[in-house]
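Running log. JK asked me to keep both predictions on one page so they can be read side by side. First protein, sequence followed by its tokens:
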Amino acid sequence: MEVFVLNEFSNNESIENGTVKIADDVVAIIAGIAATEVEGVAGMSGGITGGITEMLGMKNLSKGVKVEVGDEEAAIDLYIIVEYGSNISELGKKVQENVKNTLETMTGLNIIEVNVNILGVNFPKEPKIEAEARVK
């Protein structure tokens, strides 16, 4: 019976068959998806440009994420919008944990920090109430 040992490797490390390189955009997309999985996160924000915060959808998850990726480590900056009523400090911790765990599991990188920046609050849309007729 043969036993195969899987060796952990870092980003850009040579292995027996060649090298594995993980693009910064891949790390950013994984971080964005992991952040939006946390209940209470309304979406990612592209940042404040001219005083306007733009909430981005699924197509642009990496826009609300900045990453610095080295050979073995990465640092992540997230820019998110939270749902109104969320406990922001608790939500931030949950986002940090989910992003760190997801990235370390998927990439093998050591995530040294996950900085969560709350740039806005999403308020629920009020349903339109039709005015009652004045005369019946």
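And the second, directly underneath as requested:
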Amino acid sequence: MTGLTVVVGYGDAALDVLRHLPLHFEHPEVAVLDPDSVALMGALANGARIVPGDGRDICALRQAGTQFAARVVVAVPDDVDGLVITMAVRSLNPAAIIVAAVREPANQELFTAVGADDVFVRFRSA
């Protein structure tokens, strides 16, 4: 494992989670996996390595380096997709710390059950 943090889904939820996570490495590396080119350009501007792709695709997760990451942040817009991604990440890297941002508080236990170590509930504004 390295000082790599992989972020799957780069939007407001991911940025909120990253602001609250301590970086335990002298030279942390961040890789962002997202299908949206605008999100990727924002990540690139913030110094991240970017990987265009869908987090539900195991090949894209591998390309981002998930199997070597110390930490993976799952912050996609849909909780069902987030559950699938969390399970895939856990299968690729049993030792990684997985932090998930969820939209529905009722899904918090599901994320923990499928392998998330920390779950941030992101409340939607009306």
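Observation for JK regarding the second prediction: The chain has one domain: 5-19+27-121.
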